Amino acid sequence: MRNNKAIPVRGARDLVSAARAAGVEVFFLTNRACEPFDDADGDCPYEEVTIEDLREAGIDTDPKHVLMAWERPGWNKEKLNRREHIAKTHRVIMLFGDDYGDFVHCTRNKPLAPCTEGATRASRHAALDTYAEYWGNGWYILPNPMHGSWTSVR
Fold it and tell me: Which of 7, 26, 78, 135 has the greatest number of CB atoms lying within 10 Å of its CB?
């Protein structure tokens, strides 16, 4: 199966453990695609890869708590739909992500539903001002220099 050795972010395992000890239910949203590929069993083999990656990093989880892109109708790489799914039954108290789009929807150069137009530098900067009080107060970014919507915005 397609897998890489997971390298944990320092403190991530401890944070998840502390949250769970306090009664917080932790979900993982990933833009890895829920789609079959030739050398793996099942309809969504990357889900198991993701769960194994988390376990390698010292965080145990299960399919209920890992939400993949395209796992359900309407679940694309725009994470808003998965966040709304969680918010139907849970009070979301913290978001962690490695890309601006993990927090603010419609920030991609190429729009994905429910977004109708691509983001620009100006629209992204305006959103920063709109959500300024959330950064460090429930929203925490762990920058990933390898990928992200920030590399493609006009």
Answer: 78
pTM of the model: 0.84
Which range is least confidently modeled, 9-23, 42-56, 94-108? Answer: 94-108
Tens of pLDDT, residue by residue over 60-85, are 999 999 999 999 998 988 888 999 99
Cβ contacts of 34-40, under 8 Å, gap ≥ 24: 34/68, 34/69, 34/70, 34/71, 34/75, 35/70, 37/2, 39/1, 39/2, 40/1, 40/2
Query: Residues 131, 97: contact at Cβ < 8 Å?
Result: no
Q: Is 153 exposed, middle or buried (0-12, 13-18, 19+ CB in 10 A)?
A: middle
How is residue 152 written in tokens?
């493609």
